[in-house]
């Protein structure tokens, strides 16, 4: 078992669940440190029940994580396979996102070690599961920050552009927009133009004294600071104050929420029980509250669309 | 629109959504203060968009809530109907739990004012929705408290009995048990006996130095303090320290989580759009992430069973 | 170095500081587990800089704590001295409260090992320091809980009696009262009578719809539940709802606040530097923001009075 | 009474205290909206006890704040005086920072209305008080963010540069550095050079896998992003990952901590009682836990040096 790619809150709950479900089912369980790099280097340790005591509530990952370049080479993977064989490891649980599963798929296809993935990323951008481990915590962390910013926005009648994470996906953005009571949300899926933002803000000015605009990272029209400057240029002769805040890495850390502890725990159990039941080359996920297994190939290539009713809800609530 | 029964975090998000969806759809929206009592007394005020500004992040309910005895009488309901008629109110949104819907059902059957309910209670004990508004916040609040208690439990190698809310339902208990990494969970559905608790704790003693037992309120075998005393009696000659904490009303308050703000917002919109589409005498809910409407009669009488795989998950993870 | 008595948030910051200041000054540093019991049993381990990495933000104590009966006997202390001598330990840092220092004083007088104490208790009841490590966190934890309860109190127009910790001292109570905007505070120092509470509440009824009364534990007139019952009896014919909540052990745990991390860090350094400078049989403390050393004898016997201007402030603000 | 300049958590506690102390002493109390601008425009409202109910726990300021250019002109101040005279206002309480007091001083010298200030700013950069209202909350907010970032820093063995607020003062920086267990702190007072940072990090690499560097805003050597780039350039051939996060405006908002609620409450009372006792043209502050009044002239011009023992403490603890 290992964690790879960006860490996310709830990964420790998942690790704990893999260990304890494995032990409960009579298996030996090993933890691989530093993702694929540790697999290659052989930094692998046997896990006992108490190895995962008192970690369910902690952010980060006790197995540490890394992005591995060595694993992208044939030699790297061969070395990794040798290390696993040395310890008699017969199945793998890979906790991470797209990149993690891409590596796992190649490795499985080359060496045939049964592998099940668990969706660990804050971005909620993985096909095959309604939610990823860490997403709920990231949204709640962002919302707490937005609540604080709203205090100061309201006190000064300011317009705040707040940049949240999400890579190619607008999930964090739209949930922060609805939950944060934002006046506007700019996510990749909405393709909002600068002129639309200006128009909206000019319309809102009659009823609202302060405004919050949620901006997802990685938009075509720039980052939050660039967007703010362009919007501000259209308000030149007016006295509105514009401010920008980029929430950044705080969204990755912190104690996991109830939902992420539960999801991490469920996914860890599902991965182990899946392996025992013959599942492989696939990811465990939760859809409509049921555990499902989706081939890595689909997880990597298929897109998970944003819920259109969320966009509509956000629009109505911002009047 | 009104809130009734015990308040829950996310009710304000729901109120805001009812107001803004109503206005968006061209309706006049009124807020009834103090639940059914306010309907009888006529403490009803017209709501504008800004009436619900800056409340989505707040616990409690700006409409205040109460349990009404007067509404249980024919005279009370007649007076309420008169007040509603006076203002030309043609539809009702009732935010609350079982008791609220029982009153709404009777009132609808007597006077025929179209009524849709929103599930607002921390207990998650209502048939017709996967989650109720406030449940996620209550679990997260309880978990934060449990995390704190775990600090002191671990520092002293103590056994802690922690009582959580939930009335007749074990939902809060089981999610706190899994998320809090509890060694044991006692909820109405498990019918755990004192001797089972003693046996489990004696078994765990070999591997664990401190333990947390989550106790739902309202068990047949007593409250957390009584259970602790009885368990303690079986450990008489040993040196373990037993402690009890009842989390109490902190679980009802606090800023709503992302999930509860989103759920409250969705339910408020669903109630208004349901009324406009001809739904009545029913509750809006979310099942498998879709909005559904369930007759009040079913919400009140049918039972929502605890998920059996959660119980199994908790058991495996506590080894 | 060891922690003893009830644990408090910031103890880990203090432990970290003792270790790193000691190493910085070229000393060998040992951590004694489980307080005096561990000293007797010899569960003592050498500490490196990384032994205390990533703990400054955690509640509890990594050295664990216990109340020791064995240390109250001459034999126990003799055994403890033997264990310390075996390792060549030439100075002690005792982190805890009254009971800890009483033991340290006796031990010093019998065996002469230089000892400096650090004030670690949430109660802030120790003479010789303006604040104790853990007090600020406990007050903030209690306040967050009170804020949540206020949500539900306001929603239902209820009167809430909230019991906070503090043993014989009203410090937690009065700071919670002022910070929580309480209508009334009952602490040992005010000797408030039930009839005064009734009178106040009847007076407040004209202007306030909900009320919060902070009750310190250990009052002569009973615990919060008993006081509530007696007050309620005087309101018999009225419709006010009375509720009670006992915050309990959540006040002991949780991540320490900035103040407690800073205070713990300062006290740890002060203890080590005090020992090196020849201080002994005394406690390091902070008075008027300066480090001072006070003989254990004074810390144990002298009383720290509540600030009278805080009581006056609370009274004025509750109008 | 009014708030001016940047808002800070605890301002509402201060406003509440001014209102209630004033009423308690038999005065009429008015709240001026939007700082000096509102004074000029006459947006002033009479305050009752319930006007400040349920605000002690909220960030921001219910009186709103602004920086006024009009008040810098003679005409503006004349108009303001006229508005105050119209209402018979005989004394002023000015809550804010340097800029606020500069305006208040000029206004007092021109028109003679007795004025007392309360130190409301998160930066803790005002002479005449040990702490300013909002500072403790800002540090705690920053620390919570740093704790989250540490989770992800530790999971990936990264070096994080975190920029905190503080304008010309290193108070927020140094307290975040100690409390956050940072490896290095760069504040205006330390004049740290890039080469020192590089040297420190190279030294630390042997013992630490991840590192946190706290960077105060407004340093001569650039902002956190610029500093990171320059440091990174010296590590070119190595594999360390460098990241930067700017905490930004979240530090201004949020529910005030216990300390800031208490300090705000004390300062509000001190301002009103100071006015009644004949104090004027000065700021109320707390030094060594006693209320003191310092002439505006000193508050504005004198410097408050950083505590040198904090710098030493931080250095020792980062080994």
Automatic annotation (TrEMBL), chains A, B, C, D:
UniProt GO cellular component terms: 6-phosphofructokinase complex
Name of one Pfam family that matches: PFK
Positions annotated to bind ATP: 6, 67-68, 97-100
Domain Phosphofructokinase: 2-274
Residue numbers annotated as active site: 123
The EC number(s) this enzyme carries: 2.7.1.11
SUPFAM superfamilies: Phosphofructokinase (SSF53784)
EC class name: transferase
Record: residues binding ADP: 16-20, 150, 181-183, 206, 208-210
Cellular localisation: Cytoplasm
Binding site for substrate: 121-123, 158, 165-167, 217, 243, 249-252
Cofactor(s) for this UniProt protein: Mg(2+)
Activity regulation, short description: Allosterically activated by ADP and other diphosphonucleosides, and allosterically inhibited by phosphoenolpyruvate.
Record field: catalytic activity: beta-D-fructose 6-phosphate + ATP = beta-D-fructose 1,6-bisphosphate + ADP + H(+)
UniProt-annotated binding residues for Mg(2+): 98
GO molecular function: 6-phosphofructokinase activity; AMP binding; ATP binding; fructose-6-phosphate binding; identical protein binding; metal ion binding; monosaccharide binding
HAMAP family: Phosphofructokinase_I_B1
Assembly and interaction partners: Homotetramer.
Role: Catalyzes the phosphorylation of D-fructose 6-phosphate to fructose 1,6-bisphosphate by ATP, the first committing step of glycolysis.
Similarity comment: Belongs to the phosphofructokinase type A (PFKA) family. ATP-dependent PFK group I subfamily. Prokaryotic clade 'B1' sub-subfamily.
NCBIfam families associated with the record: PFKA_ATP (TIGR02482), PRK03202.1 (NF002872)
Protein name: ATP-dependent 6-phosphofructokinase
């Amino acid at each position: 078992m290992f964690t790879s790619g960006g860490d996310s809150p709830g990964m420790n709950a998942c690790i704990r669940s893999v260990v304890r479900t494995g032990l409960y089912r009579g298996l030996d369980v090993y933890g691989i440190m530093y993702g694929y790099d540790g697999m290659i280097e052989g930094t692998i340790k046997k896990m006992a029940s108490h190895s995962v005591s008192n970690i369910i509530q902690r952010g980060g990952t006790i197995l540490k994580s890394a992005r591995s370049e060595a694993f992208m080479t044939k030699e790297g993977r061969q070395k990794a396979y040798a290390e696993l064989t040395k310890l008699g490891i017969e199945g793998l649980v890979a906790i991470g996102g797209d990149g993690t599963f891409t590596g796992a798929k190649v490795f499985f296809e080359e060496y045939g070690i049964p592998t099940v993935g668990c969706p660990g990323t804050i971005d909620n951008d993985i096909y095959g599961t309604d939610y990823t481990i860490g997403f709920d915590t990231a949204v709640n962390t962002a919302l707490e920050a937005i609540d604080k910013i709203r205090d100061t926005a309201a006190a000064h009648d300011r317009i705040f552009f707040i940049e949240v994470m999400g890579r190619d996906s607008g999930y964090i953005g739209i949930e922060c927009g609805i939950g944060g009571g934002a006046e506007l949300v700019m996510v990749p899926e909405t393709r909002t133009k600068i002129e639309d933002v200006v128009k909206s803000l000019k319309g809102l000015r009659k009823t609202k004294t302060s405004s919050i605009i949620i901006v997802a990272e990685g938009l075509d029209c720039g980052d939050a600071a660039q967007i703010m400057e362009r919007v501000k240029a259209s308000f030149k002769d007016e006295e509105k104050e514009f401010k920008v805040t980029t929430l950044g890495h705080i969204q990755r850390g912190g104690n996991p929420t109830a939902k992420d502890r539960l999801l991490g725990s469920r996914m860890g159990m599902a991965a182990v029980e899946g392996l025992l039941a013959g599942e492989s080359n696939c990811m465990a996920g939760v859809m409509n509250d049921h555990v499902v297994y989706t081939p890595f190939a689909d997880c990597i290539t298929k897109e998970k669309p944003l819920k259109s009713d969320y966009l509509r809800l956000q629009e109505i609530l911002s009047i």
